[in-house]
Write a structure and sequence with these properties.
mainly alpha, 124 residues, 5 helices, single chain, globular
Length: 124
Amino acid sequence: MARAFLLIAGTIFLLIVALPLFLAPLAWAKRFLWTLPEEHALTIYFGRCLGATGIAVAGLALRAAADPAAHLEVFDLIAISGALLTVVHVWGAIRRIQPWIETVEIGLYLAATVASVWLRLTLG
């Protein structure tokens, strides 16, 4: 189950979030229904930084899938990242400053967090 989680979550996050943010942050933002600011430089910079970080996390998850029990720290990384992203998205929803699709992501990040914690405890 841990191997499947790492492969599926890593692949989906890499293809839907990390790579698009890294390669084309403004196109990603439009697909996720964000209103683009007039000045794009900072948006592109932050999008690419977040995308690069996402590529690293997804890459570690995919590498760890070969032997999940030997890479328990990857579950910690996913759990911490997922918890922080849950908080960010909840705060955006409370303030009503994000598109609805970002609010839907709360459940996805929370599920990834819970799954990572459960798998981490199960494996080691």
